[in-house]
Design goal:
The complex is a heterodimer of chains A (432) and B (107). Helix content of chain A is 69%, strand content 0%. Chain A has 432 residues and is mostly helical. Chain A starts with a helix and ends with a helix. In chain A, 49% of the residues are buried. With 107 residues, chain B is an alpha/beta fold. Chain B has a single domain, classed as Rossmann fold.
Amino acid sequence: MNALNQFFEKYFMPFATKLNSIKGFIAIRDAFVQVFPLTFVGSIVVCINVVLLSSTGFIGQFLVKLIPNLDSAQAVLNPVSNGTINLMAVFIVFLIARNMALQYEVDGLKAGLTSLASFFILYPPKADGMLTDSYLGANGIFVAIITGLFVGYIFSKFTKVDKLQIKMPEQVPPEVAKSFMMAIPSAIVIIMISIIAYIISLVEPQGLNALVYAALQAPIQSLGATPFTPLILIFMAMILWSVGIHGTFTVSPIYLTLYASMNIANISYAAEAGTTVGSPYPYTWFVLFENYGCIGGTGNTLALLVAILILSRRKGWKRDDYTKTAKIGFIPGLFCINEPVIFGLPIVLNPILVIPFILSPIISMGLGALMIASGLVMPGTLDVGWTTPQPIKAFLSASGSWQTALSVILVFVICVLIYMPFVMLANKQSEA
Amino acid sequence: MVTGMKKLKITLACTGGMSTSMLCARIKKAAEARGYTEVECKAYAEAALEKAAEGSDIILLGPQIRHLLSQISKRFPDIPIEVIEMRDYGMMDGEKIFAGLCGKYNW
């Protein structure tokens, strides 16, 4: 086992380290973490409107008997989308540039503001004195990411070039001189962006957003439409976890960048349609992983714990160390935190447990995709917080769907069955 | 063992700050049992470390981000940084981790 251990350490560690150090990835990942409170409230509001305040909702169907015009109450919370989901691109473009700048140790606020300015400089021109809202939300996220990265990078580089600082005569108070100095990098970046926007407008009068939309729409649709992409990503993540590296964290820039606009489009759809049935992108990483790949934590480890606790009652159970770890890890596991289990059993570098660990989320996410495709189950597209316990998370994320909740329970049972033979095998082995 | 007023600021980090937060309480308990009266032990997401880790006596990293050690060391050149051992982390063994630190840093 030591040779395998060393092999992984030698090849995977540097790979993961490199992947996790790329400033752009870090900026993107942090931006989506930072913006979570907004996507969260956007999602919760959809849940409230659909489950509670709708005459066809799970709870609403009873409430409506007390409050006949229950449905009209939805109007109170509907506008929340306009400030959250439908504005995502604007938040992201600011945050990514800010996060880039902070890594270069320059002024994040200025970088963010410059990026925000750039976003609207590149934005489609006004028609009839009005700005279109088409690219403020899901459809604008890709450009927001590129702009944020570009501006963040250029701004940081310019700020560090001394020659660009205007030197004022000594009689000028330092703060005055400083305020001018500080303004130069932003000014240069903004003018550059304006030049770029002009050049683009010669090719596409509606600007960068329209250009990107036309160019990327088809390939992103096809990547996003297939459940295979999340399956490949989870496989990569599980391999990394198997050697003790946070796999989900490492692949997050990939799935965030790829699916960001689709996730927002899904929530936006649910806000308008009042249901997740018919979501434009039902097979995103978010939909498949959050409900089917992460029960108890990445790898559906709660199923492993349950398998251990069940088997520990049988005669001939030797692995009390497993029982102990399973008990410690159970409550965090309910909230999808599983590092104690991954490192405590351990699953890491454990040739027996690693197999079901890698296989179970692939199988379960695949099953989830099949159930969604069959139309029996509603996709869970709303972000109610990744630590929300199942099956509550399934119920809420699919805007009040007991079918989705049930499907998660079913998948959970299957995962327990997948883990069981391997746990029994581990039991035969003496404690190393 | 040191007696009397003794202060320690221990900062833990992992990806979300959640799994390490469970360890915090146990490390704090272990420190208090060894005579440290003012122990501050908090867990953060590694992205939030900048302000949070200032003035820490030590930064402890969850093993799943151990590959970020050199990166984080550069950000905090004056603070010792340790990666928590996998088994200790899995078992949430605050006592063992703290004892190890006492041994290594002569606390």
